[in-house]
Amino acid sequence: MTAVIDLAKFKAKAKLNDRYAKQLKRLQAADIPTTSIEVAVNGAVSNLAKASTSALVIYGEPQSGKTEMMICLTAKLLDQGHKIIVHLMNDSVDLLTQNLRRFKTSGLAPGPRNSSELLQTSNGQKPAELVVFCKKNARDLEKLIDRLNGTGKIVVIDDEADYATPNSKINKGTKTTINDLVGQLIGSDGFYVGVTATPARLDLNNTFKNDTEKWVSFPPHAKYTGQDVFFPLDKKVSYRLTYLQQGGNSQEARDALVRFLVTVAYLNKVVNDEEKNYTMLVHTSGKKLDHEADRTTIEEAVHALTEADSTDFDTLVTNVYATAQQLYPAADPDELTGYVVENASRTSLVVLNSERDRIAAGDSATEPSSPFTIIIGGNIVSRGVTFPNLLSMFFTRNVQHKLQQDTYIQRARMFGARGAYLEHFELTIPTQLYADWHRCFVFHRLALATVRSELGSPVWIGDSRVSVASDPSIDKATVALDKGEMSFGMFDYAVELDQIVLGDPSSIVTLDALRAKLGNDALPQFLIDYIKAVMAGGGGTLAIHTASTIANYGSTANHAAISRDKGFMGKSQLEPKKFPTAVHHVKIFYNANGRAKLFYKYKGSLQFIQNLA
C-alpha cells in the first residue's frame, strides 16, 4: 500500500523562515558573541523601514566582524520577505572568494551564488529567492542588471561602500560608471545598505542621498583589538612597535623577517599547545616591481637559512640567535633558533597584487599555510581582505603629500581579534608615518563621536597632512569645507553650568565636571582625552567659556538644531585677551527653549568639514 504523502507539510518547509535565529544560534554555538550583530541588524531593518530615502549606511571598525553581521542581516531581510539580495564587493577576486566562502559555510538558505554562476542559468529561470555576489566592475554589473531585470525589488548590500561606489564626478554634473550602474541596480523601488569602516566619503558625496541621522553603528565585539590598542592617545602601546627612521630598506626588512621567525618559534615552542600557522604582511608599495624586489629580499634570506654551507647561513643564524636572546631572554635561544632552522624550508611566500597571482595561490591565499607565511602586496591587501593569525606587519607605504584618511584607516590590517598573541605582535613602520596614521585615527574617532550624537550632520576633521576624503568626491554644493568647530549631543541648559566653568576655565578637571553633569553624548570622553593628550605634548592651552544664547544670530542660525553654517565661535567668543595662549576652545550655546549644545573649536591648522544638505 502506497503511503499518503503530506505535500502541504513539505510545501511549508520549502517556505524558509527563522533564518536569522538560526544564524545567531550558529554563532553562539561557536562561542561568538552576537550582541553587536543584533544591534546593527535590528537598527538597519528598523531604519530602512522609516528612512526618508532608500539608502542607509552601517559603519563599524576595520576587521571587526562585518562579514558575520552581513550574513545575519541577509538572513533577517529574507525572513522579512525581501526576495533578491545583491552583495557588492570590491573588484578583487580575493575579497569575493573570501566572503562568498564564508556565506556558503554559514548554511544560509538560499545558497549564495557568484554572479557568474547566476549568468550560467537559463534566463527563464527566476528563483523565488536569490542571494548573489558581484564585483564592482562595469562588465559584471551590466550583466547582473540585465539578468535581474523584472525580478522585483532588490536590496543592495555594498561592502566597503565608500570604495568605487561614490560619484567622483558629482561636481561636474555627471556620474561615474560604477555609481551609475549601482544606481540602476537599486532601481526606483530598491534599497541600498552601504557597509564600511570609513563612512565620511559617503556623507560628503551624498551617495544615493543617504541620511546620516539614519546611519547604524556596528559596535566591535568584546575580543576586538582596534584603534584604542594600536593607536592609543597616550601612544603607550601594548604590542611591539618598531620604528624606522627612513622608508625601510632591505636590511630592515630582513631584520623584521628574523623577528617574525623568532616570535613564531617562541609561540610554537613555549606558548601554544600545538603548532599554529602565522602570517607576516609586507606592504611597502603599490608598484609590482617593488613587490618583486621585496620577494627577492625575503626569498634570499629564507633560502640562506636552508643552505647550511653558505656564508649567509652563518650570518643569518647568528642574527636569529641574537634576536631570540633579545626578544625572549627567559627562553632557550638554542631551542628557538633550532625551530627556525628546522622549519625554514616550510616558509610560504605569497605575492598578492593581481588576479593572476591570486589564482596561482589558490582560494585561501590569505590563510596562513605554514608557520612562516609571508604575504607581499599592494592595493589588493588594503581593503576588506582578512588575514587570520597576522603576527607581523612591515608597513612603509607612505605618500609624498597628504594621507587620505579613509585609505589609511582601511590599511590597518592588524586590527581584529589579536588579543591571544597581542604582546607578540609587531608593527614595523617609519616614525613619521606612524604619527600621521595615529592622527588619522584620532580625527576619525572624534568625527564618529559627532555621528553618534544623531543630531544633524557629522563633522569630519583633517589637517595639513591628513585629508578626509578624495577631493573630487566631496559635493561642493552642500559641503562646508572649513566650519572650524564641532558640536555634540543636545541637553537642557542650566545656569549652574557657568558656575562649574568659572571654577577654573583653563582646567581639564572642569571638563570632567561638565561631562559628569551632561553625560558622554553631550561631551564625549574621547574629546577630553584628546585635548589632554595634545596639551601634554605642548599643544597650547585650554579655554572653557561661559555659555551664550543664540538669540542674536537671527535667521543665520537654525535655532531648533542649534547650528549655523558659518559657526558660532568668532573672535569675540574666543576672548583672546582673557585666554591669549588658548588653542582649545569649549563653549555652550543655548536657544530660547532652554536646549543647549557644547561646541569645540581648535585654533590651528585643523579643517572641519560638514555636509549641510
Automatic annotation (TrEMBL):
The SWI2/SNF2 ATPase domain covers which part of the protein?
A: 39-207
Q: Which Pfam families match?
A: SWI2_SNF2, Z1
Ranges for domain Putative endonuclease Z1 come to 254-439
Listed InterPro entries: P-loop_NTPase, Put_endonuclease_Z1-dom, SWI2_SNF2
Q: What is this protein called?
A: Uncharacterized protein
